[in-house]
Request: fold
Amino acid sequence: MSAIRVSELTKDYDGVRANDEVSFEVAEGEIFGYLGPNGAGKTTTIRTLMGFQSPTSGTATLLDADIRDEEAMVAAKERVGYLPSTPGFDETATGTEILDLHASLKGDSRRRELLEMFDVPVERAIRGYSTGQKQKLGLVQAFMHEPDLVVMDEPTSGLDPLVQQRFNEFVREEKQSGTTIFLSSHVLSEVRRVCDRIGIIRDGRMVTVENVEDLLHRSGKFVRVRVAADVSRETVALDGIHDLSVRTLDESYTETTVAAGTGATVDTATELTFTYTGDFDSLVDFVDDYHILELDVEEAPLEQVFMQFYGSESEPNAVSGGEA
Reply:
C-alpha cells in the first residue's frame, strides 16, 4: 500500500509553475528521498502534501486522506510527523514548553528517548539556540508521538557531522520498525546512505523515480588512476568513459612516489579520473599499458549521477518566496 500518492500535482504562484503535473508514490515502510537543487519545487510539493496550501490542479493522498479534504487531513495528521526546512518556534518559549504544546496535540511517548539521543537543551529559551539545536528540537517533535509517516524538508540542515550520522542511523532503525520516511534534500550523499528510492525533480517536473541501487548500477563506477607516464586526453580512447579529467602531477608527488619504494623511477605522473560504464576487461587492458601508481574504483558519487539528469544547463529558476 502507499503512504503517499501524488497524481499530476500542479501548483502555480503568480504565473510561476512551481510544480508541474508531479506524480509519484511512496510505499508504506520505505525511505523515499525527494531530490533537487534549491528552487526545483521540493518545498512546494511538501507544503501541498501537508495541506498548507491547495493545489492548482491534480491531487494527492496522505495516509489515504485526500489533501483537499480538510476533515480527513486533520485525522491523518495525528499519525504524521512533520519537520519544515526552517522550524519556526516561538523564540521566547523554552524547548520544554514547545514540546509540551506539541504533546498536547499529538502525544509524546518517545520524548525522553529522543531528547537523550539528540541532546537538546530544553530548559533554555529558543532565542538562545543555535541552528543545529533548533533542528534537533524539530526532530524530537516530529518523532516523539510514534507517527506512521514522517515528512521532513532538509532534515540535516545545520546539524554537525556526528549528529548527521546519528540521525541516519536513527532513520534506518525507524524504517525497520515500519515507519515511512519522506525526506527532501539536496545533500545527495545522505540520501544515498538512507533511502530505498529517490525521486528527482527539476524545474517543477519529475525527472525520474527509481531505486537508489539501480540508479547507481546504471550510472557506472568512479575510477581514479595514477600512472607513471605523461598521458594526454587524446590517447584515452576507451568506450564507456564519461567526464574524463586528465591532470599532470607535480614534482613533489613524483618524488614522494620514488621515496615510497615503488621500485620505479618516476619522472612524470598523470592522474586520470572518470565515470566508467563500459566493460571492465577493456578497462584492465587499457591500464595494463602503464605502470600504475594508484588505482581506485568505487561507486559513482551520487552527485555525478545527479548531474547526468541536470547536465551542464543553468540552475533551475527559483520559485517565488525562496521555496525549494
User: Anything to note?
Assistant: Residues 313-323 have pLDDT under 50 and may be disordered. DSSP finds eleven helices and 14 strands in the chain. The first helix runs from residue 42 to 49.
